[in-house]
Amino acid sequence: MVKRLIFFILPVLLSASVLSQQTNTNDNPGKPQYDQPYTKPVNKLIGESGNSGNGFDMAPETTPYIVAQAVHSVKTPLTKGPVEASWASLKANYHVPAWYAGAKFGLCMHWGIYSVPAYHNEWYEKHMYGTSSIAAWHVEHFGPQDKFGYKDFIPMFTAEHFDANAWAELFKKSGARFFAPACQHHDGFALWDSKVTPYNAVKMGPHRDLIGELAVAVRKQGLKFGFTNHEIENFTFINPPKEMLDRMKAEKADLFDPQWIDFYHVADRSDEACRKFLVDWYERNVELIDKYKPDILWFDNGIDQRFLDSIKLLLAAYYYNSANAWGKEVTLNSKKAAYAPSAVNTATIGSVLDFENKTPPGIRTGTWVVDTRIGSTWGYTEGMSVASVASIVYQLIDIVSKNGTMMLNLSPKADGTLPKDQQATLLGVGKWLERNGEAIYETHNWINFTEGGKTSPKINFTVKEDILYAIIQGKNIPEEIIITSLPRNAGEVQSVGLLGSNEKINFSQDSDGLKVRLPANLPGDIAWTLKISGLKMNKSTITASGNPIGY
Predict the structure, then answer these.
(1) pTM, 2 dp
(2) In the CATH scheme, what is the homologous superfamily, with its name and number, of domain 91-114+152-438?
(3) Burial of 90: CB neighbours in 10 Å, binned 0-12, 13-18, 19+
(4) What's the CATH class of domain 450-533?
(5) Pairing, β 513-517 against β 495-498
(6) H/E element holding 4?
(7) Per-residue pLDDT for 11 more than 70?
(8) In what order do the strands lie in the sheet with 450-451?
(9) What residue ranges do the domains of the chain occupy?
(10) Interval 306-327: pLDDT, tens
């Protein structure tokens, strides 16, 4: 009985705290509070910024009061452990896992119902109801939305050729250190065996626990496993025109079908419906944490707004206390200032910062990640283009030389096959990393991340202990490379090697820089790494918080 009282009282206390803050900061708890634009100067070189300006950025359009009510309503108690649901406690107890800081290259994946129509992009659900050209395409190929809605794609998401072990072997060969597929996208369809939501891949569609199968197979290959979670944006994702809404409402069709109201979240967007949605969001995450013990839990934009802080903090505490009980080092990933109550991402707490498809223009110390695509769309679409091995390798080099990590997105088909062109690119990246991974894994940035690139070959730099790696890009590389950015007080070069080659490398050092004569037969054809020893290197730029040094 005492334990039950504790479990009941904790959410009440959390809720009371949030409600108290709400009373002090907003005279009208029924009015949505928008995050204000961050107007102070930011360091654009390192990508410092806050959340986007006025607007919810696809977060549920609600208030701190309703969020507090959701926190009060959660069914699962906070796990025992050192972390409390507060910024101070999260800051005091979090550090970036060493395995994550050194990983430098991982994979993610967009795979779900949207892979069935395979048209436009992974936001097909939103566009088929709200963008006239795509809505017309849908009618032409599948019929009117009230007769064939998004839900009707679920039986067509079969994954009949899905082989988790084959995928995991491919991921290992790619050189990736972790894999984090989307466990659910903005459509809210769960790819795991869920007791929280009936809209899942075991009860419908593939009738398989896709996340569970991948977790086992990926970990068998020695990779870390987690998932990306985009569901918070589901509540207000679909916004059809009034004519379509009125027709479906009158017919009780599709978006207004009583059996699918909680799948679409269009028919009821009341405060009570939003409270239930937030509770469901929290409980789904708890279920994922408990069932699969993820090494990474990554969140999309929708959790950015400050009014969601109380439920985000409760979930962070649950995750980190659970990991503490497992004896594992894990981390959240989030965007912008989602886990930065100061409203700038250089003061992120308890989470590694993610940049979507965009790399900061300069060196950013600490730990951060760029999620980027292998193809022209995140989810599989017919006719999508796929990046070459060289373009992915060059992007990886750029990110790592600035001290970041690349998380490369894959796009399987609805039948569970990964297209051959995506596989070929992955295998090519893996082959390059076999020779050059020493200059990528467990490295940090040097004082400069690059030189050259106009009239001379582009060279990027990374550091590991007392070794400087100089990664040369491009074609038609001259026989002699000159590295001009060595500081005068860096010392004297003792040796120069070429990764993947046993040939002796001749070099000299003078006032012009370090001159290196390359062998006639270079290993590979994309980028080559010089291993330089004898110089005085800068210390590691990895920080416990993940934030840049000095912030």
Answers:
(1) 0.94
(2) Glycosidases (3.20.20.80)
(3) buried
(4) mainly beta
(5) unpaired
(6) helix 2-25
(7) no
(8) 450-451, 459-464, 467-473, 527-533, 495-498
(9) 91-114+152-438, 450-533
(10) 999 999 999 999 999 999 999 9
